[in-house]
Amino acid sequence: MNFGVIRALVAKDFTLFFRNRFYALITILGIITYLVIYFVMPSLVNEELEIGLYAPIIPPVFELIQQEEGLEFHEYNSDQNLRQAITDRVHEAGVVLPEDIMEQLASGQTPPVTLYFSIDAPDEIKDIVETMVKEMAYLQTGQFLAIDISAEILGPDLLGDQIPIRDRMRLMLVIMLIMFEMMGLASLISEEVEQGTIRALLVTPMSVRDLFTAKLIMGASLAFIQGALFMTIVGGLNIQPSIILIGLLLGSIMFTGTGFLIASLAKDMLTSMGWGITAILIYAIPAFGVMFPGTVTDWARFIPTYYLTNIIHQVSNLNAGWSEIWLDLLILMVFNILLVWGGIMAIGRKLR
Amino acid sequence: MVEQAIIADKLTYSYNNLLAVDHISFHVAKGEILGFLGPNGAGKTTSVKMLTGQLKPKDGKAILLGLDVAENIERVQSEIGVCFEETNLYQRMSAVENLNLFARLFNVKSFNAYSLLARVGLSGREKDRVENYSKGMKQRLMVARSLVSKPQILFLDEPTAGLDPTSSEAIRNIILEERKRGATIFLTTHDMMEADKLSDRVAFMNQGKILALDKPLNLKQKYGKRALKAKVASNKGSLEIREINLDTPQTAEEIQKLFHNEKVVTIHSEEATLEDIFIKITGRGLTE
Amino acid sequence: MNSRRILVLLGKEFIHGPKNFMFIWAIVAPLAFTLVATLAFGTLFSDKPKLGILDEGDSQLVIMAMDIDSITTREYQDVISLKQATRSGAVDMGIVLPQNFDEIVAKKEANTIEAYIWGESLAKDRIILPTTIANLTRELADQEVPVEIITVTLGDEASIPWSERLIPFLVLMGVFFSGLMLPSTSLIEEKQKKTFEAVVITPASISEIFIAKATMGIVLSVFMGIVILLLNQAFGANSLLLVAVLFLGAIMAVELGLICGALIRDITTLFTIWKSGGILLFGPAIVYMFPQIPEWIGNIFPTYYALQPVVEISMRSGNWSNISLNVFILIAIDIILLFFIMLAARRLMQRT
Question: Do B46 and B18 meet the contact criterion of CB atoms below 8 Å apart?
Fold first, then answer.
């Protein structure tokens, strides 16, 4: 390994990258775009089912249930006001209890309860509100269930402290941001092959290993800097920044290794782009699983990004520490070694 | 004993089942210029790739400066300079940046890109991006790049192809200067005149084999014929051509007869060109 | 303008176009996304609370729960997989019904159901699911509902369910991926391989070359738009108007593609623009996907004027009056882009 040579090659790659002002500008715009997406996304999670209520007399059970987390009644002073609120989509659903509900229930009659729904209300809300009202009526008439539910919370309990959509999305955005560098690197190598400059390099005393170490440094650092910058701005480094940064660095190296593999498969820049998109789609699956929990099953563990995703998600969203993620880091390192080694071998073989 | 810079010993290479280079053997002495000639697809580029360590021979050996190329790639490559046929410069970098990069790759201390660029006639445009250069300027820069490490062996692949006469002449002068410095030059070219003018020896390659390798003069003597061509006035007043072979024992007698018996109007000697010899040996032209 | 030459060039595009990797991608990618969306996204993006049941006996409650639309119910075969599903968020709550659950309910015997709650489950889901289970148990026990429920829907505009929110994205992907990427990559490739130069010095004019490339892009773009709408069963009633709007959208995509192809030097730069500029194309689709984002934001993006009419006709049974303004804006954009194409073509000729 010749460090002087590597330094010269890294400097060359950076010069070529930033020499194309448009390229550099677009990279900056890319980060801005991802930042805009992040900040446009909702920063809060509304955990409550909010229902409008008009009830001249509120049955005690309704008041009792209202105190529980998850359901919130907004009282209105007239049926008309409630109707208007629902029409204006202030709430998706509203409940109107008759004035004499208590009397009717006491006398064994079935009092009419009117449910208002905005036209936007999904069917599930309609069913749910109806179910809730029925259940409250059962309880109000003293029909308690003999069946009791004993619940155990699995995983960290985030009640009242849910992860906002944008923080779930943050992971996807940062991974996409650094993943795109993988395609950039693959294109850069394809460009060198297409323009023949790689031949000029290969007849110098520089070894193929030096060449790809330089490309690895260039690709990984470019991806890492972008990822770290993005995470800093969106507050992703507020918790355990060292773990997140190590994760991002390992991820950047892993994507660079994949970039080598792509470049070894691709005949030209277009093909490298096609393979790059394919790799990105596969690599994005674990991050997709974080955005939509439960959608990705155990097979995702075979995707290298699963461990990167897990590290960043666990640390930045669930306050995990070294003890919880050391194994993921270790596996990610193994994937890194395999992909970088495999990538360099494959591209070296292609060039030879 | 003459020290050899390049030794090709039964070098062989095949692409799948196609034999591109078929057990070729030759040597180039230190300080010698070897013209490597052959039509497209003859196996010239593959041979150069094996000699410069870009391809590993399927059989045989390439020895440069006493070192087996396959086993000492890095050491060998430190001592060679290669100028490719296709332009492969970093287009978004300036000439100086291109040369400095390669100087660093060759680990050349105290390298002065400006003086090298002046030598190839690129003064004043040193800091321009290569993408803004003309074809001739790019070619001169390619030659300059191959000289960055002051190589002991210089491989030049069509260094003057497509250039204007002035640029070609400039590059030819550089080649001669390099030879004067002591460099060995392996010149691949289509230009027979150039090969004839510059090369100490020329090799004719066709279909993966070296068909002839010798000094241009020897080849001409061996395969070509020198002749004397004279225009003589006939009795009817018209001009006729007489040709006398200069390499036979009867040459002197025939010349005497010509001047004695005929009314010679003009006379000039004619030599076979390398191209004639190439066609004679291979049965095909260089550009086929 | 010579129609014979255009036909010759078009023939070349159709014969050699499919060899281009982008051509295959332009067809495969939107179809793959559609497949994923129809198979998975319809339920993946659902806001419905998710219930997991492990039935140790043969309870009717499982069938009843499966029949309810307001929640998503999945059945599991053992406690390990139920807990795993709950821990990963595949379900919000997992319950274990004992072997003789229906008998216990019928006899009104006291019992406890073992349950697991996903720590990230929202408060409202944590109240909805137990209430729903309680309601189902009451149904199982034939308890009479003590109130009469009257449902009234208020408002006059229908909403788009989650499964449909993705369609705009898929349509944009189909129309713009092929419409934009095909002419641009084809033009850049021709420039790089110098075949453009060779064609342009024949009597064929640059406008004829552009028309041939545009025709190819428009045909594929409209075709993909139609296929995606058909696959998503969202073609609507006014098919002629829909095809006309798709055609206008395809023109816009192709025009952008030709401008990119004419101005951009290499595939890497095109890809870099696509990387961050893609948001400008897909912005409106994101607005449709997330109703939390104010709809006016969509108006900023030029593709909105192609997408809104398509969504209006295909998914909202809209007619000419609902889309006329945006269609006129779309036509105006198409005309403006035509001027930009002329400028780009002039620049291209100067550089060739």
Answer: no
**Do residues C169 and C288 make contact, with C-beta atoms less than 8 angstroms apart?**
yes
Domain residue ranges in chain A? 3-42+164-351, 49-140
**A344 contacts A212 by C-beta, under 8 angstroms:** yes
Report pLDDT digits (tens) over C249-299: 999 999 999 999 888 887 777 777 776 677 777 788 877 777 667 777 788
| Residue in chain C lying closest to A41 (CA) | C293
Q: Give me the residue from C108, C143, C159 closest to A120, CB to CB.
A: C159
Of A152, A317, A157, A301, residue with least CA distance to A235: A317
pLDDT on residue C84: 87
Sign of CA dihedral A37, A39, A45, A46: negative
Q: Which of B197, B137, B201 has its CA nearest to residue B5?
A: B201
**ipTM of the complex in this document:** 0.73
- The answer to whether the CB atoms of A158 and C119 lie below 8 A apart is yes
Do the strands B239-245 and B263-270 form a parallel or antiparallel pair, or are they unpaired? unpaired
**Cα C293 versus chain centre, distance:** 17
Provide the pLDDT for residue B26. 94
Q: Domain-by-domain residue ranges, chain B?
A: 4-220, 225-271
Superfamily of domain A49-140: abc type-2 transporter like domain (3.40.1710.10)
With an 8 Å Cβ cutoff, are C124 and A48 in contact? yes
Closest CA to C149 of C135, C133, C134: C135
Structure confidence at residue B27 (pLDDT): 93
Q: What is the CATH number of domain B4-220?
A: 3.40.50.300
Helix C206-231 and helix C239-263, axial crossing angle in degrees, nearest 10: 140
C-chain residues near A116 (CB < 8 A): 152-154
* CATH code reported for the domain at C47-140: 3.40.190.10
Q: Reading across the β-sheet that carries A112-118, which strands appear in turn?
A: A71-75, A49-54, A93-96, A112-118, C148-154
Question: By C-alpha distance, which of B161, B187, B166 is closest to B175?
Answer: B187
Q: Where are the domains of chain C?
A: 3-42+166-351, 47-140
DSSP C137-161: HHHHTTPPPSSEEEEEEE-S-----
Are A138 and C130 a contacting pair at CB < 8 A?
A: no
Report yes or no: B180 at the A interface, CB cutoff 8 Å.
Answer: no
Reduced to 3 states (helix: H, G, I; strand: E, B; else coil), residue B6 is strand
Main-chain phi, psi angles of B66, to 5 degrees: 80, 0
With b meaning 16 or more CB within 10 Å and e meaning fewer, what string describes C58-75? ebebbebbeebebbbbbe
Partners of residue A273 in chain C, C-beta under 8 Å: 21-22, 267, 271
CA dist., res. A225 & res. A17, Å (int): 14
B287 pLDDT above the threshold of 70: no
Count Cβ–Cβ pairs < 8 Å, chain A vs chain B.
Answer: 68
Residue C93 CA to residue C128 CA, distance in Å, equals: 10
Averaged pLDDT, C176-189: 84
pLDDT-derived band at B5, boundaries 50, 70, 90:
very high
Instruction: Quote the Cα angle for C347-C348-C352, to 5°.
Output: 120
With H, G, I as helix, E, B as strand and everything else as coil, classify residue A189.
Answer: helix
Interface of C with A in 219-278 (CB under 8 A): 266-269, 271-273, 275-277
pLDDT per position as a tens digit, A306-345: 999 989 988 988 888 899 899 999 999 999 999 999 988 8
What is the DSSP secondary structure assignment for residue C38, as one 8-state letter?
A: I
Minimum-distance CB partner of B92 among A19, A206, A352:
A19
User: Is some CB atom of chain C closer than 8 A to the CB atom of A153?
Assistant: yes
> Mind telling me how many Å the CA of A227 is from chain B's nearest CA?
27
The predicted structure's pLDDT at residue C160:
55
